[in-house]
Amino acid sequence: MDVAVIGGSVAGLQAALTLGRARRQVVLFDDGRARNRAASHVHNYLGVADLAPDELLAVGRQQLAAYGVDVQERRVEEVTPDDDGFVVGGRHVRVVVLATGLWDELPDVPGVADGWGQSVVACPHCHGWEVRDQPLVQLGMRGAPDRSVARALLLSRWSDDVVLCTDGDVLTGTQLDRLAVAGVKVRTERVADVGSGVRLVNGETLAAARVFVVVRQHQQSDLAERIGCQVTDGAVVVDEGGRTTVPGVYAAGTTAAPALLAIGAAGQASTAAVAVHGDLLESDLGGGW
């Protein structure tokens, strides 16, 4: 078999689709743990009318069937190199595409995890339009005030009623000045919990049509490191074609570029898949990797 794609969210599906259409033999492994599975809809994705994440992935799987892609619903725990490729899930393949994605570490505030993907979200570009011109709260991640301020400034373009809750972090004068210019109000009290609004420890509740949070991102899988790929700042290091530092191993989507939106992850995965096909062709012609 030519390629094993590990991960079945938008990046993995797009990589498999591109390779299947190139008449490559592809097996895709998916454990069903897409990062955005808690969300109601996928927004800001050209050509997609706000489908739920599972609906979008189901459409992608249906497309794969036409190109003979073998979908295996299981988690891959090991990738074993051999003389002319790798063994993945009991299959011998020439190339591996890692599209295992990320998981989000949420602020340690009661109620955030309960509302995640619904009343609590992270990305203004993904969810800002739906709550434009409404009261919004940006909840910071303690210990990361720079990111909290940057996100609140960004959010101010969707509403003129934005409150940044620093949850105890103290901001600099420069940060406060920038927030004031953008019209963002600042509350530095600790946050008691998040529910229909944001309740501060003094008992006051801030109204919020949506609570935006800063998250810390982590790789869902350590396969890349165990294979020997270079990982820097939580991202698998790749070149412009998605090639990692291990020959025959590629990385796609947020596995390689954590800041990508869903549509960007799909686009990068398509680019990586084109590189995979070209490299396999070169190998077929005797050029090696």
From TrEMBL:
Enzymatic reactions: [thioredoxin]-dithiol + NADP(+) = [thioredoxin]-disulfide + NADPH + H(+)
The keyword Chloroplast appears for this protein: no
KW Ligase (keyword) present: no
Domain FAD/NAD(P)-binding: 1-263
Pfam families: Pyr_redox_2
Transmembrane regions: none
Keywords, in A-Z order: Flavoprotein, Oxidoreductase
Record-linked SUPFAM superfamilies: FAD/NAD(P)-binding domain
InterPro entries reported in the protein's UniProt record: FAD/NAD-bd_sf (IPR036188), FAD/NAD-binding_dom (IPR023753), Ferredoxin-NADP_redctase_2 (IPR050097)
Protein name: NAD(P)/FAD-dependent oxidoreductase
